[in-house]
């Protein structure tokens, strides 16, 4: 008050006050949405342990997501991201005695139109020149796109054809029924259920080194790497095991790529960079990006910052550390499960950890298995048995790497744990494990478990490197009267082998034949020659 006869100064002051109040309320809504989406992310990221059977090998336990990614995106994620406009529409309809207002429906339809045109346009525009992005789940995209178009057609039918200007109960009920049908059909497309199981499935390696699945002629597949098909059926069974192997292969491929790009970095820095690269490359939920955008806009902390600077031994590339068991059974696994060693290291130690029940004596066997590295040529094959005595939590054994003078690609091999059992000092009958407690009774122990990661990956970095070549001086200034000027080319980070390096001059502001003589030739570095 007063609300009449206001001067220009009053209008400006009140407008500024209303704007501040509106921004404050928007800030509150963003904070609530951030909490809501973070909670949804926690729910949809729940994990469970499943037993994976492998042909001709010991079964192992891997950690997988409880929620299907497609179902999570279409249910909780969509609800969380659209919660503000949905609540706004509900409040307005309730306040107006179930009559549509000017704000609610327009907000929802406007938000959908904004997503359809503006957001998709930005997503297409920001892709760098020369790069390509492809839809990960093309079948799911087609299904949801068809349902989206049908939703607008259905909206027109119920508002302009069957009952003009009124939404009747049966129309509302049928509309709500379309939602679970959308989720169900998208899930069928994602999991390749019903008729999809009759289609041929193949596996190939994409350009990032990730093993992916495709049907014959599937558009969503990326080009083959070196034209080679990768068949996982001979190695693992089940979607969980395939995801487990995909994650492992992606980490190894990333480490190799970084090794070639940064040959001068030490192993710890390479592993840290590879870990961050895998985290960045990995697909993330809608909630993750929503929370990231909100927090950065409001000056909050980066969600990814807590992962950066963490050594892979502390954060396993194959997944999170095993959860604490509800029952106190003995659980045995590798920690860490990925080792990166130079070829010249000789011997290094591998650690196996026990958690849970520390009372019974346990025996677990281990053996090495070839990957791209071969026993006898690149490393010394090993197998044996580890014995965990009462109270012991860590056991270590040594692996030997064979050093040679030949240049070769970085290679890897595996170490597997299997046949976990009670030690000879423990007595167990009828599948119950009992331990005598000095006459005070018996204590029953749960059967010990071999959990993920039960396989360790060892990456051998070749130190017989041919080297990295570059000019000593990036930029040189010379006078016209210099005549002939010699440029020095240096060989860094290795000098193995006879290497031919081509070179040529390229015009910028100076022109060949006028300001300088054009050159096109080859430099030959002999073995151990560095300049």
UniProtKB/TrEMBL annotation:
Major place of residence = membrane
Reaction it catalyzes: Ca(2+)(in) + 3 Na(+)(out) = Ca(2+)(out) + 3 Na(+)(in)
Membrane topology (UniProt): Multi-pass membrane protein
What stretches pass through the bilayer?
12-32, 74-95, 107-128, 140-163, 169-189
Give the location in the cell. Answer: Cell membrane
Q: What is the protein name for this chain? A: Calx-beta domain-containing protein
List the NCBIfam families hit by this protein, alphabetically: caca
This entry carries the following GO cellular component terms, namely: axon; postsynapse; sarcolemma
Q: Which UniProt keywords apply?
A: Antiport, Calcium, Calcium transport, Calmodulin-binding, Cell membrane, Coiled coil, Glycoprotein, Ion transport, Membrane, Metal-binding, Repeat, Signal, Sodium, Sodium transport, Transmembrane, Transmembrane helix, Transport
Q: Which residues form a coiled coil?
A: 222-261
Q: Which family does it belong to?
A: Belongs to the Ca(2+):cation antiporter (CaCA) (TC 2.A.19) family. SLC8 subfamily.
